[in-house]
């Protein structure tokens, strides 16, 4: 066979394979509906069963946050936030009029804390405490006698036992420090602060980043305190679509069956409270893979590459930490099938290294409309040292768009489920609702919010429900939200 005809056959095979992959990644509207019903079931099951003892349902962690801020809160509070990439220390002034001022110190978490298996929790929390000390020396040098209330945003699953205590269930987003699992993370940090003679900084609240995002959105939303005047819209969900994904909402305390009956009684009948914020930890929706669409690439990612196989499978199809990795795994597979990058016997080092292909690269490819996809060519060259031909780039762009669309369609599922479960779309006249979001994917990935909205209209809430949803980017949730948590502690 001539070289030309062999080349043509390969080209056709690549196109066919690309179509197959795109089809596998496509989520139809009936699947969105099925996933939404199963999500509601998983929420209900999670509200009935203890997180650590049951594998059924979602974690649905009670946060002990009982009220939504309305923007009139006032005070100066400290906050710190351990995310997947950075540690931030802030002091937040809440002005009581929906506005705030924030001073902050942001530090990139040194890679050894993420990559080195021998690092201990004492070392990690010691590092965090030293950063807090640097902040205090800079902004509150004379504050040794004052008591500073601090909210701690900790964006990993914890079994929360009160507003200010919670034990780590497991790490996500890359950390592997095993001896921290099962320990109270507030105590771990407070011990290290005390060692540095910073006992006057008191961690009074533990707050997941979704909860911080939600509270900070409520504080900022002018609608929080104006529902009686014109009934505009009501904040109902806080969520993150960034390195990881997660969401929270206010649940009726009476429905949180896993809380001890006496506690529920005390909250409802003695304290007159009706709702508690629930951190769903939706990243671990359907870890048993009953309904979640799964491709062979998802299995490779989970089993062979991720540090927590079998957990957070929903997150592994949605969040920024994984979208680039899914593409990388597909490209490596197509190379092994001799359909891509045929000039290489051995692939360039970066393409064969897990997590080297970042979701940011996908965001450039997603919207590339340059002649011959030159932008894509440059991006792949710069980020992976990977030369490509036009036909390869056309296929890569189709796959990129399928990966991001699947992510956004799946992201709509928990939103639709919570809107339905809380009946908030029917709660009041015209029932308009607000969703406060944070995270690089929802904020920066081109077209993500439109795709998510489209999927909401295909979900059981339909186009009528979708029109009532207002999506806001709630920045600084981890600072302002944690400060709001600390204020009520
Ligand atoms: C992961 C964590 C969760 C966090 C989310 C977003 O899913 O388990 O606690 O809220 O990432 O950062």
From TrEMBL:
Domain Hexokinase C-terminal: 237-488
Biological pathway: Carbohydrate degradation; glycolysis; D-glyceraldehyde 3-phosphate and glycerone phosphate from D-glucose: step 1/4
Superkingdom of the organism of origin: Eukaryota
Keyword Chaperone: no
CDD domains: ASKHA_NBD_GLK1-2_fungi
Pfam family membership, one: Hexokinase_1
Boundaries of every Hexokinase N-terminal domain copy: 18-219
Protein name as catalogued: Phosphotransferase
Species for this entry: Saccharomycodes ludwigii
